[in-house]
Amino acid sequence: MEKHNIFNQIPVDLTHEVFEPLVDYHEVLIERIISKKHVTPEGQWYDQDRSEWVMVVQGEAKLMFEDSEVVHLEPGDHINIPAHYKHRVLWTSETTETLWLAVHY
Length: 105
Description:
This protein is an all-beta fold. Helices cover 0% and strands 47% of the residues. The strands form 2 sheets. It has a 5-stranded antiparallel beta sheet, with no helix packed on it. The chain has a 3-stranded antiparallel beta sheet with strand order 5-4-7, with no helix packed on it. The protein is globular, with a radius of gyration of 13 Å. The model has no long low-confidence stretch (mean pLDDT 97).
């Protein structure tokens, strides 16, 4: 068994948002996402085939849903997004990395 830490090995260059699979087994994907000033491009939406449970571990973010609801997530906040429920990242912290833990199922 190899131990890992979600806070280790944060890339210095965060020009692009980072998606790192932690576990990818059968119907489940658990990933660490690292954002800093990243947003979903205007007019684009995530429309995923699987449901996604996501938690902000560090930093802050705002998600917008297709019904225009905006949810502000701070450390420890989590939300379950049903499959095909369109959403986008409206804002992530500009001063610190936002670490997400996402479970796609």
